[in-house]
TrEMBL record, chains A, B:
Localisation: Cytoplasm
One GO BP annotation of this record: acetate metabolic process
Enzyme class: hydrolase
InterPro entries: AcetylCoA_hyd_C (IPR026888), AcetylCoA_hyd_C_sf (IPR038460), ActCoA_hydro (IPR046433), ActCoA_hydro_N (IPR003702), NagB/RpiA_transferase-like (IPR037171)
Species annotation: Desulfuromonas soudanensis
EC numbers for this chain: 3.1.2.1
Keywords associated with the record: Cytoplasm, Hydrolase, Transferase
All residue ranges annotated as the Acetyl-CoA hydrolase/transferase C-terminal domain in the record: 329-479
Catalytic activity: acetyl-CoA + H2O = acetate + CoA + H(+)
Cytoplasm in keyword set: yes
Protein name as it appears in the record: Acetyl-CoA hydrolase
Amino acid sequence: MSEFGTLESRIRRKSLMKKVMKAEETIQFFKSGMNLGWSGFTPAGYPKAVPIALADHVEKNNLQGKMKFNLFIGASVGAETENRWAQLDMIDRRWPYQTGKDISKGINEGRIRMGDKHLSLFAQDLGYGFYTENGRIDLAIIEVSAITEDCGLVLTSSCGVVPELMMVADRIILEVNTGQPSFEGMHDIVMSQNPPNRQPYLITKASSRIGTTSVPCDPDKIIAIVESKRRDKGRAFTDMDDTSEAIAAHIIDFFSNEVAKGRLPKNLLPLQSGVGSIANAVVGGLAKGPFKNLTVYTEVLQDTMLDLFDSGKLDFASSCSLSLSESPGFPRFFDNWEKYADKIVLRPLSISNAPEPIRRLGCIAMNTPVEFDIYAHANSTLVGGTRMINGLGGSGDFLRNGFLKIMHSPSTRPSKTDPIGITCVVPKAPHIDHTEHDLDVLVTEQGLADLRGLAPKDRAQMMIDKCVHPEYKPIIQEYFDMAKKECLAKGIGHEPQLFDRCFKMQQNLAKNGTMRIKNWDIKIDLCE
Amino acid sequence: MSEFGTLESRIRRKSLMKKVMKAEETIQFFKSGMNLGWSGFTPAGYPKAVPIALADHVEKNNLQGKMKFNLFIGASVGAETENRWAQLDMIDRRWPYQTGKDISKGINEGRIRMGDKHLSLFAQDLGYGFYTENGRIDLAIIEVSAITEDCGLVLTSSCGVVPELMMVADRIILEVNTGQPSFEGMHDIVMSQNPPNRQPYLITKASSRIGTTSVPCDPDKIIAIVESKRRDKGRAFTDMDDTSEAIAAHIIDFFSNEVAKGRLPKNLLPLQSGVGSIANAVVGGLAKGPFKNLTVYTEVLQDTMLDLFDSGKLDFASSCSLSLSESPGFPRFFDNWEKYADKIVLRPLSISNAPEPIRRLGCIAMNTPVEFDIYAHANSTLVGGTRMINGLGGSGDFLRNGFLKIMHSPSTRPSKTDPIGITCVVPKAPHIDHTEHDLDVLVTEQGLADLRGLAPKDRAQMMIDKCVHPEYKPIIQEYFDMAKKECLAKGIGHEPQLFDRCFKMQQNLAKNGTMRIKNWDIKIDLCE
């Protein structure tokens, strides 16, 4: 038995005990070509025992490329599952977000068909039956803490798209995780109706509870129950650096000014913060900063949130997942359960990322893109405009609907071929996930550009003045001046661009290893 | 007196009678540099007498360029007001949408600073005080049908951003329109609180009423009341053509299939339809089609909606404006008031376009872009990527949040230099307002591409197969094959593009007058 209770004590609906089996025994249920749905979100709350057993089976029997599946999961899951599946050529389609070197390689070499979508849309569209031929998911694999007497699924460290999977899955395998405490009571589950019968989500503060603590499940669909003792392989903590600290300082300063002007309440508004070193620095800055009684309404909580709770500044946090590090995050959380548990609610992705509560609450959205351009279009997904990293995630859900829409990035990123680095502020983004209509404030360590109410050319000048790295400033200023002059002269200059030159910096990087071009001249022969 | 009642009968708060004056007498209240907010939306319900009197004053006294204002209005207003102001160099800033040859010229030549934003965001951001230095509007000019005893403003043919103007305007001029019947009872006004105090909008069907029939107004802010008899200069009816009818037929067919598959109810879901010949053809197709008990939840109702009501197929329509043609639209509407009035509700822009009801109701969003690309990014605003036409409007509010997100366009548009026309499906859109993450279905007269659940390369092939004009099909297929080959070989091919060639069709149009290029060769000297 486990120190966290026996499997028997976790399966409170006793008639289900007869469906308990070993992970290896579930391999019989999988057939190549199946559409699979998993629990899990940003490596938290995903099934582990069954996917790993299946991967072992494929490896042992040399079935690489002969057992391929379509994977629909709320967001990324642990590398030991989806990335290992990619290594073993077990993935055909993957929606809507992923993490891992091998899965990314498979996508960018054309072996894995990935699609990304705003996460709130992915969740509901899955429930609408938009992703598969017959609208169904053949098999769902769900990690649970417990099963209630009436067959309610008590989830673990995330909610993901489990409610939608209950709507469209034909068969269900449950993994009961007895290797950690039960998360019972932390979830707020809403089984959303599809239109035209959908009802309002009556969330009016981050701490609002509008649902139930378990997900209703049809017991006849459950074909297997497997015990698992594996924990989430949560991401390692990203250290802060000077650049991130400078960005965070600009943002805290901006908040203070907005409070002074009466445009933000003294305790700000519910915060959404992405992942990574800048997000960590912002949370760190808030822990030391002047604002009290903060709340968080976001999609993922990471280790730094525990620091913010410990600082006494954070009253409550709502999220889709609790994505702590395997160590020290989760042990710290479990050891202090009483301190944190009643200040956190975990919601399904369709609720955590829904425009309705995000806009009503007036979230402050903060995310890091790959790059942004002078007019405030941002690329969040495709390096160089074509190579997928992870996916769009929920950035668009929060940026479109937030009270303030903030993106932050270092002004340059390291390059192997240029000691100054490549610029993250470009004349034209080679791929666009968030448009100029969706962003209010862009920040680099150089400064903060408050673009609210500015016309495109005014935005561009402010971006150059405030955000561009000094080494790139004269280059981008020259482009902007030239584009303005040429376009305005032709009466086509609302948002000036020169389509023969707008990607010259990127082209020069590919050819000569640097974006710091010597001039904007270019000679083009169209070969017609 | 007017046939529609006297000014006295319309001003039911009698103490306000002393503020009645002639339009010319309000000129004293205007000072160059002021921030002005008007009622009005898609030439409906905008002030006319005062703006025209001010324009006459400027013209008569040669004050061109010496009386300039910043104009904040829900959307476009009649050409006799904003376009005339542009002619007379009376506009500095203009948000967030406009119509008119002279205003567009001023924007694209750099004299008028226009910015566009999703209309739902514009409305709320205006109420947040994001658009002006002190967050205030100096003077609001509002067209009303009547003023109630408790100083409620009964609006006319649109609601626009009047509730937000009441929050931020320092002074108010009212135009009481006695040249047409009062619209009293048709509006459903919600004075939305700003976060963190915003409450749910409990709209669960197009016909839900959640507010009041007039807008509360502080009588002390009213500095003048002017009588007006001018009617809205609504747009002329756009005739249908074969292309539009073919597009509409594809869409109706698609709806039938979705109903058959059980993914849409028999009476569909609330419809949002843009403006123009394709939208007219779709509405025309619905009037003759198999679907009954339809509802509409949209931002603008045009003449064709009266046909849909008359067909008996339409039960109810919710909109921000009733933008009928001056003739025959409005006379037909007024003559049959009893038939239409209780089937229409007019809502403020902040409600009509809010993600909350749009997503809850599951609207079917249909809009026409300038162009879209093979990966399903759409350009709705900037011809050639830089020249502003009208603005983004509410297309993004509905496309992002609709149950189905549909864009429709002819496969080609007429060109003066190429008898085949220019293609509206391009390898890469030169400007992007709606991303691949926001669109489900793209349609041209060639066919309908249902892109739901498809990865980028699969989307591109379907777009080429279904939507591209036959003359352009081999050209774009060649680009796509070449881009796939080159990018996949480098392991950067999630969404293949070639940044040296992706705009070659546009560059060739500029140089040689045609997008039908002979080959994809190009020679580039970066001049480094």
